[in-house]
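Q&A log
Question type: sequence-to-structure
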Amino acid sequence: MSIRFHISTFGCQMNDYDSAKIAQILAPMGYEQADDPSDADLLLINTCSIREKAERKVYSLLGRFKGLKRRNPSLIIGVGGCVAQQEGEALLHKVDCLDFVFGTHAIFDLPEILSEVGKNGRRKAYTDFTYRFDPPMESAALETAPAKDPSVKSLVTIMRGCDNFCTFCVVPYTRGHEVSRPSGHILEEAAGLARAGAKEITLLGQNVNSYRSDEGKTGFVDLLQHVNRIRELERIRFTTSHPKDLSSELIHAFGSLEKLCPHIHLPVQSGSDAILKRMNRRYTRNEYLEKIQRLRSVCPDISITTDLIVGFPGETDHDFEATLELMRRVRFDGAYSFKYSDRPPAKATRFEGKVPEELKSERLQRLQALQNRITLERNQRFTHRDVRVLVECQGRRRPSQVSGRTGGNQVVNFPGDRSLTGRIVSVRVEEALLHSLRGRLQSSG
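Response status: OK
Response body:
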């Protein structure tokens, strides 16, 4: 009789990737995935602590799981990811229904962890920073093995951790120092996914620009060139880039690598030099703008998205207006924007000059209204143009439609059937909306 498990995932694409690996690790142990948590014998939550709201969602979900455990005392509940790494054993004291906590470096230790939990039933936290990209032999195959049924798009982690220590960010504390994965492992996994049907691969890391492996011989652009040679692969993306490490070589790659999508996510966080300095971002406003200009000179139609924080400690009206002015100059295709919140143990929690919550909300509303106008205007440039779309799935709301993305990452919906899934087709854009484009199929060649 199989054991059923359910994974709830919060946060970034790195967590999505880790959850997929967890499923692969559990499969040889006889575990089968359950869609409904109430049908599972093992409940796992893969957490994110980068924003306060994401962490609150985890505690809310654990509250619901507590009711399931009352009805089924043999149910095992584990929490992993960044909240687990950050809280460690304290999480066990806060949540009495929780059986174990496993940190960001303990994914490949799950077989041993579950065995130990099953044998002695003792509640324990496994959060030591012991993970490396050379796991034990029995786990090495899992690290490079593609999923059994990969989707049209797949994720491949190339590095973990971060050495930047931005003053608002907990990632260096929850995921540790930067560790680059051997290029051979990455290429083996990417090629396996492509052979199994993946048409697009996104390379993941907290700061992919600083990737360096194989005793320093392979940098990020070298890796992109190797992935670009995988025959079955159609598209390559990557995230996330730190502006200070965006090299001339990487900028020029957008003009020379035919499979590299014309889209870059380049978090700016603020348009004020004073705030950028307090954030420890290590670039200036003008340096960021200069790199944007160079990107567009190499790839004129490149889509640029970003992250923005409003209400960082010490942010004045002048600082905020500088951010709005930068947005007007760059004209981002999209932006993830957030109100600053203290995330211990990040350094900014100790900064003076905290911005009142009401003012943060007002600024965020103004910023998002501006970005919505710019995004819609940027999307309208595609109206009456033909775009190349990788079809990803059938429409959720309209089964007679399919949905996919352009190379620039714009969502396109158009009439079609599921037989188009996995194909790159030509679509004539008829209408531009804020979050998507609508069009009509021109050709499927």
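Response note: The domain at 3-126 is CATH 3.40.50.12160 (Rossmann fold).
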